[in-house]
Amino acid sequence: MLISIDSRTFLLSKINKIRNQNSVLRNSKLKNVVILSENLGPQKFLSDLIFSIEQNNLAEITYNFLKSDVHLLNSGFYSPLWKYLKPKNKEKVILRLDGIGIDNLQKKEDKVKFDLSNLIDKSAFLIYQSNFCRNCFLDFFKSLPNGKIIVNGAKEVLTVQKYGYKLLNKIRSRYKEKFFTLAGRFSSRKRIEDVINQFNDADIGNLVVLSDVPEKLRYKNHRIIYLGMVDPDTARYIISKSMALIHFDRYDWCPNLVIGAIYDRVPVICSNFGGTPEITRNNGLIIKEFPENLPHNLEGIDYVKKANFPCELFKEIIFEIKLNGINIPINNVYDLNDTAKEYVKTASKLDV
Question: Is 6:36 a contact under the CB 8 Å cutoff?
Fold first, then answer.
């Protein structure tokens, strides 16, 4: 079976394949990879997915959708061509919905709905990252093509750049082995600032922040280290050495940070709304700050957007971990090879 993907994703997957086979290239930062948006979540995942499909000989991959049996389209990263293209046979198009569009609904509802509807109308089958993601899309659009949930997966990080080792040495020179990690874009939704404030206000532990926190908001606190935004593999390496990853996003779909942490057997501390607790399950601690019956729709999202951070509850749980550690067996790792098999299995059902 021949599966086509976005040409930039195809090129990035080829670059990563070459880089993976060459130790010198693995430890270098290629400018063209930056241009191809390697650090963008959907692009990073898709590139890794293609690598796994080819490595396991599950299917052949091309950028030429005119010759392929099935085309894999992604709502979070796709060629502008698909805004205008009318595929001859939409029965051969699978659309992966990652939730990025819905995040902006309240700001640009008409445009977002038009863009998403445009992609959905060109597709025969939908892939959701989580049950939460599916419920939100079904609530918003009411009627959608057939689809299924395929949770993201992570691959083993074979080689870490020297930069990653230097960062870890910097951390260990101050904290030794005991520190929490906090990562992601600095935005209100991800509540990076809220979490940092709790660590600054009370001695509940050591925190390593992998986020683009503005300089004016960085506390001069010995218990907090700011590393800025680093590449995904370096961030994952640092997270893998921590006591736990704190991912307190108000609502997320299927964060690669969480998938990677669980794959590396690092417990996740998260809130109880969105796709993150659904993925975390018994692989971490889910802080119950929101009502259990909060609906998975725009109403529920609007509710959590307005909610205050649960300061005392959060501090109590983190301080308990600082004192006694966190001993949680990780039983449900999300292997990218299994994810790749699910994608190809889904595509094969369209290739008839």
Answer: no
- Please name each of the domains of the chain with its CATH number: 2-153+336-350 (3.40.50), 162-324 (3.40.50.2000)
Sign for the CA dihedral angle at 318, 203, 225, 238 comes to: negative
How would you label 159-178 residue by residue, b for 16+ Cβ within 10 Å and e otherwise? ebbeebeebbeebeeebeee
Euclidean distance between CA atoms 154 and 31, whole angstroms:
24
pLDDT tens sequence for the chain (352 residues): 999 999 999 998 888 888 776 655 555 555 445 556 666 788 889 999 999 999 999 999 999 999 999 999 999 888 888 888 888 788 999 999 986 666 665 555 677 778 889 999 999 999 999 999 999 999 888 889 999 999 999 998 877 888 899 999 999 999 977 999 999 999 999 999 999 999 999 999 999 999 999 999 999 999 999 999 998 889 999 999 999 999 999 999 999 999 999 999 999 999 999 999 999 999 999 999 999 999 999 899 999 999 999 999 999 999 999 999 998 988 778 999 999 999 999 999 987 6
